[in-house]
Design brief:
344 residues, alpha/beta, D-Maltodextrin-Binding Protein, domain 2, 5-stranded mixed sheet, 11 helices, globular, disordered N terminus
Length: 344
């Protein structure tokens, strides 16, 4: 019995020396908070791997606990303020849930401002370094990214033209696209993603705009039957996301631990997250097909009609930025330049 105990203690001691996660006591425990359930791709493939990588590279001096499904309380639109207040140490959320905080980033929420998620995420990160330092000042921003091109999903009809959207109770993904779909004749309804399944089930909405990647996380492929893709060099829309850390917590870390965080932040991480979203689209379209989904693409002429109908949204955004002294024309041109640069 004693011989077995000595062997066990010796094994544990050796493990503590050779396994980085056991080599040191945690000096900082980071609570990462987000809105999606554990099976969702961002939880399983982005946030948990990020936590594991930070713990390993810090030699166990940083411990990271990930809390999905709003387990720390509050509602999804409150996540960004939780990072600022310190209720959560790190958050991942949709930037458009706080439209007045990140007005410059909303250039990437405008209609037809997405190529693929990886390229657009890199463009957004680079754009932010030059243009968004004031909007990011209250946070240690780890990554900025988008999801892949949004798709129109409907309960009871195939959308082939703007006339098919007229009168629809349409769940819009953000404030900008709410106005855009309104110009096509929809009755926009805004709600965070976790509320969409309930909204569809109760008939509060009958159309949604989302990438395929989101559908299986909430079994939405069982609630929407018709799916319309928007082809071309630019997709219909994308939401942007912010992965951010409480700035005071970061500032309290010694330089070597700040370096661990820095090494797991920035352009590379933003692009990597975007690439994960890109990789999920075909897979989750397949899941949607198995659920009986029916698919179509807008014709080139109809895409042109949508672009023309939605142009006032872009014009209005530029005018609003100008009114706020932010040179909207220059910001819009810079966002387009960076999209073209990273999409080559």
């Amino acid at each position: 019995m004693w011989r077995f105990a000595r062997i066990l203690l010796t094994t544990l001691f050796i493990t503590s020396l050779t396994n980085p996660l056991y080599a040191a006591e945690a000096e900082f425990v980071l609570k990462v908070h987000h809105m999606l359930p554990p099976p969702a791709m961002p939880h399983a493939k982005i946030l948990v791997p990020w936590a594991e990588k930070v713990m390993k590279e810090s030699n166990g001096r940083i411990k990271v606990d990930v809390y999905p499904s709003m387990q720390l309380g509050g509602k999804p639109p409150e996540l960004i303020n939780q990072a600022r207040s310190g209720l959560a140490d790190v958050i991942w959320t949709v930037g458009g849930y706080s439209p007045n905080l990140f007005t410059k980033a909303s250039a990437f929420e405008l209609p037809f401002m997405v190529t693929n998620a990886e390229a657009t995420s890199k463009a957004l990160w680079e754009y932010a370094q030059t243009n968004m330092q004031d909007e990011m000042a209250d946070y240690k921003v780890l990554a900025l990214h988008v999801h892949d091109r949004g798709v129109v999903h409907a309960v009871d009809k195939q959308v082939k033209s703007a006339s098919d959207i007229k009168g629809a109770k349409f769940r819009a993904p953000n404030k900008v696209m709410s106005k855009a779909f309104g110009l096509l004749g929809a009755n926009p309804v805004f709600m965070p993603v976790p509320a969409v399944a309930s909204g569809l089930s109760k008939g509060v909405i009958n159309m949604v705009a989302l990438p395929y990647e989101v559908l299986p996380s909430f079994k939405l492929q069982e609630l929407v039957k018709y799916h319309t893709e928007i082809p071309g060099d630019r997709g219909l829309y994308a939401n942007f996301f912010i992965f951010a850390m409480n700035k005071d917590v970061y500032n309290k870390m010694p330089a070597d631990l700040q370096k661990v965080i820095d090494n797991n932040s920035g352009l590379e991480l933003s692009g990597h997250i975007g690439s994960l979203f890109d990789a999920q689209e075909d897979k989750h379209k397949g899941v949607t097909a198995k659920a009986g989904g029916k698919f179509t693409e807008l014709s080139a002429s109809e895409v042109a009609n949508w672009k023309k109908a939605m142009q006032p949204i872009t014009d209005e955004w530029i005018a609003r930025m100008n009114k706020e002294g932010k040179n909207g024309k220059k910001l819009y041109a810079e966002a387009n330049r960076l999209l073209d640069k990273h999409s080559k």
